[in-house]
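User: Fold this one for me? It's NitT/TauT family transport system permease protein.
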Amino acid sequence: MAITESDRNYLLQKSKQAEAKPTVTLPQILQMLAPAGALLAALVLHLTLPNVYPKGYQSVTYPAFLKTCLGIYVILGLASFLLPKLRAKMLYLSWLLTAAILLVAALDMATLKTGRFRLPFVPSPDKILSSVTTNLETLAVSFYFSMKLLFTGIVIGIISGMISGILLGWSQICNYWFMPVLKMIGPVPSAAWLPIVMVLFATSRQASVFLIVLSIWFPLTLMVSSAIRDTDKRLVETARVLGASEVYIMLHVALPAALPAMFTGLFMGLSSSFGALIIAEMLGVEAGLGWYIKWAEAWGEYAKIFSTVGLFIILFFILMDTLFRIRNRLLKWQKGTVRW
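Assistant: Here's what I get for NitT/TauT family transport system permease protein.
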């Protein structure tokens, strides 16, 4: 018997309702409980096993951290039953979170509980977390100066990289004269510029900004100029036939076509800018995360080094995730045509 139009509409409505209210299965619940179970196991092991190395050490920060994370995860887990997007995100991250928690617990076992890894080179999780809470003011000041320096270099690097990329990609004259300069100075690593920038710039801050700008400017200029040169000639000729000016074609045809390459250049530049930041803060600045790491290394405070590296990882993850979200919003037309 053939399906009538009313039956088809009824089935379509039921399928939409099923998609709008997805049911939570038992395997999904167990998967979401895996990080909570790992947190609980790490907490129980830490509280039950004695502290072997160093003897008499009393841990405070690490147990409180585990309890806080467990409470936050339980709250999010309960909220995920009402928020399907949150539930999907937690399911996706559940095994990664579980693995990360187990690695931290293994570090706790290998340091504080067994003494397999010795101080000061491999500190326990409690010492790493305590180095943050006991030096919060110094770390906050260093974080502020590092972010001020980093974002100043990123903004200048993005502006200069976009301008030079458009000029090199659109103008044959600019490409002829300046592309060799780009190929010569762009690939030079930031560390190699240290003795030169100390002579060229009046202050260490100006030299530091230059190193970060260079790390952003080179990949962004290279990717944008290449993408503009590779713009579909048919689109450009069609716009010219319709009477569009060169400026209009560049802004409304070539530049939108170069957006995917622009984000690729930003990803590359952002990753290298963090390395440039550490190098830049070794030029004699009075505060910054790179300075903080160097100062902690001089005093053998490896717990502070570990905590600062962890802060860098969190910051880099946030910046990259923000950049991915911006790209996904601006380049919705790529979905289904380009594999992300």
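One thing worth pointing out: The CA atoms of residues 62 and 259 lie 44 Å apart.
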